[in-house]
Amino acid sequence: MVTNEQCTLSATLEQGVIINGTCHQGTVPDYYIDARDVKDIQLGLTFARQHKIPISVKNTGHDYKGRSTGPDTLAIWTKNIMPDLKIDKDFVPQGCEQSAGPGVTYGAGQTFDDLYTKLDGTGYFIVGGSCTTVGAAGGWLAGGGNSILTPILGLGVDNALQIKAVLPNGTYITANRCQNQDLFFAMRGGGGGTFGVVTEVTSKLHEDHQFIHVFMTMNLPDGVREVSEILVDNAERWADEGWGGIYGGSPGGVSFLTFNPSLSLEEAENSVKPLRDYLESVASDSNPLTINITTVPSHWAVVNTPVSLAFIALEAGTSRTRSSRLVPRENFQTAEGRKQLVDVIEGMNWATILGTPTAFALPESDLPGGPGYASVTPAWRNALWHFIYTESWDQGNPAETSPEALEQRFRRVSQAMDPMRAITPGAGAYQAESDIYEPDMIDSFWGQDNYDRLLKIKQDLDPDNLLSCFTCVGWDKADPRHRCYPEMSAIRQD
Ligand SMILES: Cc1cc2nc3c(=O)[nH]c(=O)nc-3n(C[C@H](O)[C@H](O)[C@H](O)COP(=O)(O)OP(=O)(O)OC[C@H]3O[C@@H](n4cnc5c(N)ncnc54)[C@H](O)[C@@H]3O)c2cc1C
Questions:
Q1: Under 8 Å between Cβ of 307 and 257
Q2: Is pLDDT at 72 greater than 90 in this prediction?
Q3: N- or C-end of the chain: fewer Cβ atoms within 10 A?
Q4: 86-207 placed in CATH 3.40.50.450
Q5: pLDDT tens across 358-412, in order?
Q6: Is residue 91 scored above 60 in pLDDT?
Q7: What's the CA gap between 160 and 31, in Å, rounded?
Q8: Regarding the domain delimited by 19-80+448-490, which CATH topology (the fold level of the hierarchy) does it fall under?
C-alpha cells in the first residue's frame, strides 16, 4: 500500500490479466516453505530462529488486512497440509476421559467447500464460513469464525474440540478443554499467525437436516428507510428465532438471503411476514419482488443454492476492505435506540448485516473461567448484528490503486463506521473483518481481560516475536514486517 509495489490483476479486463505485465514483489515473501507435515514446520521455525528471519504464515490468503504475508519474511504455507478427513462419532479429545460427541478432524489446508462436500451424505455437517474458499483451520478459526448457522450453533471457536499446532519454539502440542487450556483459549479468538502454526483441527459435527431458505430481493430507488425500520424492529425476534444469513442493502435496493435451522415453513413465513408485506406493497410490474421461501434438504444444499453461490462468487482483481461493528441487544430495546440505529444505517447508505451467536447458549465449560473459554471479544455474546461496511475497487485501475487513493479508501471505510461506533460504546468488532484503522483494537477485538491473558501467553511463548503480524497480539510497530502499511503513526500499538 505504501510503495505501490503491486502485482495487479484486473477485474474488468480478461480475468487474471496482470496489468502492464509487471509484477512487483510487494509484501509477498521471497521464500515459502510448502509445508506438508509437522516436521516441515518445525524445520522452518528452527531455521528461522537460527538465522533470525521473521516468519509469516499463510493458508488461503483471504485475510483482509494482508496478515498472511510480510516483506522479507520466510513464509510457512499451510494450504497443502491436507490429510484425509477423520470422522469420529465419539471423539475423545486427548487427555479427556469423556467423549465430546461426534467430531471431524481435518488438516490446516482444509477449505470449507471441500469439507462441506465431503461431509455431504455422511449425515453430519459442521459450522463453517459462508464463503467456502476460506480456510477452516487458519484465520477463520483463530479470529472467531462466523457462519450462517452461528446464531443457533455458535461461532467457529465454540465448535472447536481440539487444535494441534507447532509452537514458535518447535514444540508440537495438542490443545483442548482438558489440556493446554491457555493455548486452546489463545488459538480460538486470539488471531492467526501469532501463537503457533496450526496443523490440525477437530470440530464438532452436527446431525444434518433440512433448513428453511428465504431469499427476497428488489430494487428500491426511493430508498430503504422503511426496510431499515423493519429490520431494526424485528431484530431481536429474528435473532432469537435463530435466523442467520446476509441482509444487504444499498441506496438502490435490498437483498435478503437467510436460513433457519429450526422453524417450520409456516412459522418461517409468519416470521418474515412484516418484511415481505412491505416489499410486496411497493413492488410493481416494472419493479417486481423476487421472493423464494422454501425448505432445502441439507446443509450442503444451504451453501449451494444458486443464490448462495451468487453471493459468494469471487473474481480475480477485485479488492475489498471493510469495517465491522458488533451491535449490542440494548440498542434495539428502546424506541430511541431503534431510531438511532435506523438513522445511522441510512446515513451510511446501508451496509451488510450478518448474524451473531444470540440464540446459542455457551456450555458451562466455555463460560469465563471455564476450560473452554475462548478469547473472542465478549461483545459477540451480547450482539444481535454483525454490521459490516464494505467498499470494493478494481486493482487494474491505476486511479484507484495509487498509495494515496488506497489510504483514502481505507480511512473512509473505517470512518464510515464511526456513527455506529458512537451509538454502541463498549461494543466490539470482528477482528477478521475489521479495518486497519479500527480505534481501540484491544477493546474491540478481545476486551481488556482477554487481551491481558493473551499478551502474557504470547510473551511467554514467543518473546522474540518469531511469529507476528500486523495489529496481532504482541506485535511490534517497528518490526519491518509491517512496513508496507500506511500511516503507522495513526495505528494504536498497545
Ligand atoms: C471472500 C471472503 C469471504 C469471507 N467469509 C467469511 C465468513 O463467511 N465468515 C467469517 O467468519 N469470515 C469470513 N471471511 C474472513 C476470514 O475469516 C478471514 O479472512 C480469515 O483470516 C481467513 O483465514 P485463512 O486461513 O483462510 O486466510 P489467510 O489469509 O491465509 O490467513 C489468515 C490469518 O491466519 C493466519 N494463519 C493461516 N493459517 C494458519 C495456520 N495454519 N496456523 C496459524 N496461523 C495461520 C495467517 O498468518 C493470517 O494471520 C471472509 C474473507 C474473505 C476474503
A1: yes
A2: yes
A3: C
A4: no
A5: 999 999 999 999 999 999 999 999 999 999 999 988 777 778 888 888 889 999 9
A6: yes
A7: 31
A8: 3.30.43
pLDDT band at residue 494 under the 50/70/90 scheme: very low
Q: What is the pLDDT of residue 19?
A: 64
Cα(460) to ligand 1 centroid in Å equals 25
Residue 279 CA, ligand 1 centroid: distance in Å? 36
Cell numbers that stand for 429 in this block:
468488532
Q: What CA–CA distance (Å, rounded) separates 249 from 287?
A: 16
Cell, residue 54: 521473521
Q: Where in the chain is the domain with CATH 3.30.465.10?
A: 86-207
The SS3 of residue 245 is strand
Q: How does pLDDT run across 59-69, given as a tens digit for each residue?
A: 999 999 999 99
Q: Where in the chain is the domain with CATH 3.40.462.20?
A: 211-443
Angle at 450 between CA 448 and CA 454, to 5 degrees: 110
Residue 293: strand pairing partners: 214
Tell me yes or no: is domain 211-443 CATH 3.30.565.10.
Answer: no
| Minimum CA distance residue for ligand 1 atom 4 | 131
CA distance 486 to 90: 49
pLDDT of residue 400: 84
What stretch(es) of the chain map to CATH 3.30.43.10? 19-80+448-490
Residue nearest ligand 1's atom 3 by CA: 131
Mutate to test the pocket of ligand 1, among 27, 32, 57 (most ligand atoms within 8 A of CB): 57
CA distances from 172 to 44, 75, 464 (A): 13, 19, 19
